[in-house]
Amino acid sequence: MTRMSTSIVAVLALASCCTPGGREPGVRRTDPGIARRVVIEDAGVGLINSITVVSRQGKPAIAVGGTNGVAFLSMDYLEEQLVRFEGIRMTTAVPVDVEGDGLFEFMDRGGSWSPVKLVSHEGKLLWTFPDEGKSDRSPAADQMVAGDLDGDGKAEFAVGMNGGGGLFVLGKDGRIAWRKDASNVHCVEIVDLDSDGKPEIVHVDGRFVVIRDRFGAEIRRFLFAVHPLTPLVRRSMRGDTEILGEMGGALHSFNSFGAEAPRVPSPGGHGDTENILPVLFNGTQYYAATNRRSYDHTIGFLYVYDAAGRVLHEEVFSARVKALAAVTDPSRTDSELLLVAVGGQVIELRKQ
Question: Which residues have C-beta within 8 Å of that of residue 4, sequence separation ≥ 6?
Answer without folding.
Answer: 39, 40, 41, 42, 43, 71, 73, 77, 78, 79
